[in-house]
Amino acid sequence: MKSINRVGACFFFLFLMIAAAQTSAVPPPLPSRNVDTLRSSLQRIRSHFSGDMSIYAKNLVTHEEIAIDSDSVYETFSVIKLAIASELLHQEQMGKLSLSDRVTLEAANRRLPSGVLYALDPGLNPTLGDLLTLMIIISDNEATDAIADRVGRNNVTSYMNSLGLSKTTIEFSDLDWDRTWLGSLDPSYKKASGDQTILFPFDKYGDAQVSAAFGKTIYDAGIYFGHSTTREIGRLLEMMVAGTLVSAQASQKLLATMEKQQVNDRFPHYLPGIRMAHKTGDGQPFIANDAGVLWVNDQPVVLVVFTGHHRGNTPELHDAIATVAAAVVKFYGGPVVKGFVEP
């Protein structure tokens, strides 16, 4: 009888140890919070911003959502490359192309400095997969036009529409944009080839004149890189996380590529150690955008910030976007740099 009791006591002790281990493995609950607090913080940041700002944020675990001017159409600049990448992967799924297909880049493919391909010798023969990587992680415009020419810009827009993203569109090439901008300074460049645009004599014009021409092209020339809303780009990112953008494999590939992003002067600025997959858009000092997924305490949070008509300098523009991201991460209990203070 004593032997049975001893065995029973051992099993009971073992049960207590397992229960204690399981209890200690469960992370402590996050402090109670009200998402309206975060909404107020973001609205305050926006009210201090010298220009227009649209913000969309959604925690994909709690489904908390904040939408501030999120249905207004903004110039995306290079954030539209997420839509181009989506159509590329869509056409691969349909068997129309393979990411292993090679594209020969000629001198005319060169684009004004964005990325690295413009600085390399003509005749390079990268794969579509290589171009996809360059388009996303260093925002290479030569890679972008090569992919968009291959898949068709109208097909990019059509695919976005099929996903319910009716305000996400692309119509013009990067070369179209450069010709319009440079042609406003020197009319002979209105029909320039790509290799001619990279030789444009900027030193003949003052910085203020070049910048004014750039801003006029954005707002008055009737041409754009991409159009979308923060809500629609947020929805595109949500589909990636869910594995429903084209396919689970394609969604994961695009997110993994975005995690290798090399342009990290916005969302990541105040966020050491935060895992994120994101894509920027550049039209400084008038516009800068960022869009991505931030994993905070293992919760994927979609965040998209678009700006427009900014009246300050580029560092101020980037800092405002970085501040939005830091406020979101701080709200969900993630780490921000020491000394970060919200406006």
Report on this model:
The structure is a single chain. With 343 residues, the protein is of the alpha+beta class. It has a single domain, classed as DD-peptidase/beta-lactamase superfamily (Beta-lactamase, 3-Layer(aba) Sandwich). The chain contains 12 helices and 7 strands. Strands 2-1-7-6-5 form a 5-stranded antiparallel beta sheet, sandwiched between helices. A two-stranded antiparallel sheet has the order 3-4. The radius of gyration is 24 Å and the shape is globular. The chain starts with a helix and ends in a 12-residue tail after the last helix.
Please outline the helices and strands.
Elements: H1 2-25, H2 35-47, E1 52-59, E2 65-68, E3 74-75, H3 81-93, H4 128-137, H5 141-151, H6 153-162, H7 174-185, H8 194-197, H9 207-220, E4 227-228, H10 230-242, H11 248-258, E5 275-283, E6 287-296, E7 299-308, H12 314-331
Antiparallel strand pairs: 1-2, 1-7, 3-4, 5-6, 6-7
